[in-house]
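Continuing from the previous page...

OK, I double-checked the sequence for EXOS2 protein against my notes and this is the correct one:
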Amino acid sequence: RGHGTYVEEEKLIASVAGAVERVNKLVCVKALKTRYNGEVGDIVVGRITEVQQKRWKVETNSRLDSVLLLSSMNLPGGELRRRSAEDELAMRDYLQEGDLISAEVQSVFSDGAVSLHTRSLKYGKLGQGVLVQVSPSLVKRQKTHFHDLPCGASVILGNNGFIWIYPTPEQKDEEGGGFTTNLEPVPLSDREVISRLRNCIVALVTQKLMLFDTSILYCYEASLPHQIKDILKPEVMEEIVLETRQRLLDLEG
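Thanks. Re-ran it with the corrected sequence; updated structure tokens here:
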């Protein structure tokens, strides 16, 4: 038996409410309401809370602040060289308090704190969009956590329970090294899609359904007959999530 279980009268009983996980013969129960426990290779979305010497502190929904070292990020333009004193002085030009970033977990320290890196052009500073915070246990682990949905918006499903919804960019920007943020006004049609996706994710979380690209897309399609603001009504939530669950079961079946 693993975490979240105990034995009583030779029966295995869950000590927390959550999802059952089996690894070979080990049975664990992962609590629904939990802080994020970092694993190497996880994709996270975080918020810069502090600029320190050669590093940034990042809030990632875990017990301790995560760390992004100056040496663990691409310099603008993607140039490779040792970080100098000038780079240290310019740290606030790259990222400052309150900025949102996407990153990958590089290592986990012995006390459980997480070290991040943004050494790929798909990671970096996040521009315009909406952040939704959910329980990390509801985000399904997949090969990729960056999804361009056919409805016209993209999502980053952070393993830490921070989900970023943003308009799908027209062209992939390869020059900025992850620091150029697009601050153009977002058209109303894109804003409506983003708002609908946000409300769909809230509905899925309320009904405790796992979040991944297919479940979000099915929920989005099921919500189309309803107004965006109506999705948050309990009876509408129940109806569209029930339809989503049925479609996912049909898909598996």
